[in-house]
Inverse folding.
C-alpha cells in the first residue's frame, strides 16, 4: 500500500469513490428479458472500460488510490453463469449489428467512422470479457485491490433504504450482515468500510456497523453539517461517531461538477448524446439482432450524435473532439480542487479531505466519456505536488485530530432526506415490507432448528424479503420509468413470501414450486433465515 501522505507535505487529499450497483434482475424463465440488459449495458459501457483504464494505470505505475463499493446484487449477477452466457449472446448480436452498420453507412463517412468505432469497442469488449477475464469481472477488481491501487468497500444486501426500516431494527441488521457476508465471499476478506444505500443514515447505525467490524461509512453533506455539535472542519475531515466509527461527508462542490444537469461536465455539447440511440431510430426489421424476443425496441448503445445543444439538429459525434474536451474538463476539475484545497488548508489550518462519491454507472453508461475523464484526472493529479489521491482507509490512518459528533438522519436523494423513497407513488410498499419482517422474525424464532423443506422455505422467505426491500423499486416508481416492472417485482416477492408463510403455517409445501422459485432467485446461497431471530447466530 502507498505511504500515507504527511499533512505537512500535502495541501489536500481527494477521495474519489465509485459506487457500483444494479438491482437483481435475473429471469431464467424467459429466453430473453429486456431488463437484464441493464446489466449488459453496464458491463459493456462502464465496468469493462473502467477495468481497462484502471489496469492500464496500475501497469504503468501511475500513483493513485481509488475507492469502489460493490453491492451484493451486482456481485451475484456478475458471477452468475446464466447471465454471463446471455451477456456474450447480447454482445454477439451487437457485433453483428455493427457489421451491418458499417455497410449501411458506407456513403456517410462521419457515420461509418462511428460504426467502425463501435465495432472495434464491442469486439474488444468480447475479447476482454471472454479471453482476458474469463467472464469473471470480480477477480480483476480484487487483483487491483491487492496491488494497492483500489480499495473495495461493501454495501447492504439488496440496497435497501435503511432509514425506512427503522421501525424493526432487525431488518437493518439483516441488510448489513448479509451484505458483509456477500462481500467476504466475493473478495476473500472483510471490508473496512461500507456504503450505506443511497447514503441513507439514521443515528444508531454506527453501533450496528461497529458490531460487524466496520470502521467507516459515507454520508451526504448535511448529515455532518447539521449534526451535533456543529463540525469545526465541516465535511473536510472525517467525523467520529460517539462509538468511534468514522463518517465521511460528501463534498458538494466537486460533486456538482459531475452530477449537475445544468452545470456538470456530462452535458457539454461535444459529448455523446445519450438519448439518440439507433435502436429507436432505424427500421425494426433491420434491428432484428438487437431486439428482444418480443420485438420490442431497446437501447443498443450505438449512438451517432453528440449533444450539440438543446435542438433537434444534432451533429455527428466526434470521439477525438470529445476526448479533447474530457482532457479540458479533467484539468478544470483538478484546478478547481486545487484552489478549493489550498483555501481550505489555510482556513482550517489542517489538511482537508475532499470526498467525491459517484455512481460507477455514470462513468461510461450515462456519461460515455466518463472513464476517459477519470483516467485523465488520475494522470494529471500526479503532477500536483500538493494533492494526494486517497482512499477512506488512508484518511482514517492519518494522524490528524478528528471531529467528535453525532451525524443526523440523511440521504443523498433529492431534498436530502427520504422523499424520493417515501411519497405518494411508493408509500404503499412499506406496510407490506414491515409485515414481512414481522412474520420473518416470528417464524425464525418458532423454527429455530428447522431442517429439510422447512429450512429451505424459511431461507427463501428471507431471500424474498431482502429482494422486496431493494430501494430501486421505490426509486423507479418515483421516477416513473419501468414502473410496470417495478410493480411486478414488488408484488412477486410479497406474494411468494406470503405463500411460503402460509405453507409453513399449514406444515406442507409444493416442493416442485419451491425448487422453481429457489432456482429463479438464487442469490445468497449462504443465507441463514435465523439472521432474523431474536438471537441471531454469530
Amino acid at each position: 500500500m502507498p505511504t500515507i501522505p504527511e499533512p505537512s507535505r500535502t495541501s489536500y487529499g481527494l477521495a474519489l469513490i465509485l459506487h457500483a450497483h444494479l438491482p437483481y434482475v435475473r429471469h431464467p424463465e424467459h429466453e430473453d428479458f429486456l431488463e437484464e440488459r441493464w446489466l449488459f449495458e453496464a458491463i459493456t459501457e462502464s465496468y469493462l472500460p473502467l477495468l481497462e483504464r484502471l489496469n492500464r494505470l496500475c501497469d504503468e505505475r501511475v500513483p493513485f488510490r481509488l475507492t469502489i463499493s460493490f453491492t451484493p446484487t451486482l456481485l451475484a449477477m456478475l458471477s452468475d453463469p446464466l447471465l454471463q452466457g446471455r451477456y456474450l449472446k447480447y454482445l454477439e448480436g451487437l457485433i453483428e449489428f455493427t457489421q451491418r452498420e458499417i455497410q449501411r453507412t458506407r456513403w456517410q463517412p462521419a457515420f461509418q467512422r462511428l460504426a467502425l468505432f463501435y465495432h472495434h469497442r464491442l469486439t474488444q469488449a468480447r475479447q476482454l470479457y471472454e479471453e482476458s477475464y474469463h467472464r469473471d469481472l470480480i477477480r480483476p477488481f480484487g487483483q487491483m485491490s491487492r496491488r494497492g491501487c483500489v480499495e473495495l468497500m461493501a454495501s447492504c444486501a439488496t440496497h435497501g433504504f435503511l432509514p425506512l426500516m427503522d421501525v424493526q431494527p432487525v431488518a437493518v441488521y439483516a441488510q448489513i450482515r448479509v451484505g458483509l457476508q456477500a462481500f467476504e465471499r466475493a473478495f476473500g476478506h472483510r471490508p473496512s468500510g461500507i456504503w450505506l444505500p443511497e447514503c441513507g443514515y439514521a443515528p444508531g447505525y454506527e453501533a450496528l456497523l461497529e458490531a460487524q467490524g466496520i470502521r467507516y461509512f459515507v454520508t451526504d453533506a448535511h448529515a455532518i453539517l447539521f449534526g451535533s455539535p456543529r463540525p469545526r472542519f465541516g465535511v473536510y475531515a472525517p467525523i467520529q461517531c460517539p462509538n468511534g466509527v468514522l463518517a465521511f461527508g460528501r463534498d458538494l462542490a466537486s460533486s456538482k461538477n459531475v452530477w449537475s444537469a445544468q452545470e456538470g461536465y456530462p452535458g457539454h455539447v461535444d459529448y455523446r448524446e445519450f438519448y439518440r440511440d439507433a435502436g429507436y431510430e432505424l427500421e425494426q426489421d433491420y434491428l432484428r439482432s438487437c431486439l428482444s424476443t418480443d420485438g420490442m425496441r431497446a437501447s443498443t448503445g450505438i449512438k451517432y450524435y453528440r449533444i450539440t445543444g438543446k435542438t433537434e439538429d444534432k451533429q455527428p459525434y466526434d470521439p477525438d473532439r470529445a476526448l479533447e474536451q474530457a482532457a479540458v474538463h479533467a484539468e478544470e476539475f483538478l484546478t478547481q480542487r486545487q484552489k478549493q484545497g489550498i483555501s481550505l488548508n489555510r482556513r482550517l489550518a489542517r489538511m482537508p479531505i475532499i470526498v467525491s462519491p459517484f455512481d460507477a454507472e455514470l462513468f461510461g453508461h450515462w456519461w460515455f466519456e466518463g472513464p476517459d475523464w477519470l483516467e485523465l484526472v488520475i494522470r494529471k493529479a500526479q503532477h500536483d505536488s500538493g494533492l494526494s489521491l486517497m482512499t477512506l482507509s488512508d484518511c482514517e490512518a492519518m494522524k490528524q485530530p478528528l471531529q467528535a459528533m453525532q451525524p443526523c438522519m440523511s440521504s443523498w436523494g433529492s431534498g436530502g432526506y427520504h422523499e424520493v423513497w417515501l411519497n405518494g407513488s411508493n408509500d404503499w410498499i412499506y406496510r407490506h415490507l414491515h409485515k414481512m419482517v414481522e412474520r420473518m422474525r416470528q417464524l425464525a424464532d418458532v423454527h429455530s432448528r428447522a431442517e429439510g423443506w422447512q429450512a429451505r422455505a424459511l431461507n427463501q422467505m428471507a431471500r424474498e424479503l431482502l429482494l422486496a426491500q431493494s430501494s430501486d423499486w421505490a426509486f423507479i416508481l418515483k421516477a416513473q420509468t419501468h414502473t410496470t416492472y417495478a410493480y411486478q417485482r414488488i408484488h412477486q416477492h410479497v406474494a411468494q413470501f406470503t405463500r411460503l408463510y402460509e405453507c409453513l403455517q399449514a406444515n406442507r409445501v409444493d416442493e416442485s414450486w419451491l425448487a422453481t422459485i429457489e432456482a429463479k432467485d438464487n442469490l445468497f446461497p449462504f443465507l441463514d433465515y435465523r439472521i432474523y431471530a431474536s438471537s441471531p447466530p454469530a
